Sequence to fold (150 residues):
Amino acid sequence: MELRDVLTPQMVHTGVDVADKDGAIRYLARVLVDAGYVDDLEAFVADVYLRETEGITGIGGGIAIPHGKSASVTVPAVAVATLAHPIAWETLDGGDVDAVFLFCAGDSNEGAREHLVLLSKVATKLADDDLVVQVRHAQSPEEIVRLMCG
Fold:
């Protein structure tokens, strides 16, 4: 599975105004529900928070990559939000977050495999500090998709 298969402009939102981590997770979970990738918002959010208890998903540099394997996921996907202002998040560098990549995958073995492949591809891209700056300052969903999938 390629990132371009699941990251479309419809799954990317820029300038999102949320107050906190819960607002960001719920906003992006709703994007996934509305697109048909998740069929139960509350069950999926609960599974994302279950994963949050296992370790920090704020990778530093203003980026968080929360994720959840869930029976409520119908198709693996990723939803992205750049935020209007930084929010508190548990991060490796102790900083706030202003870009969130929320992954969803089914709870089967195949879902777990696809989830890890997508997560690895995004993490590799986000290791490029220049690319992260470009994503953070992107003015449109199409620009973020081009940067992440190019």
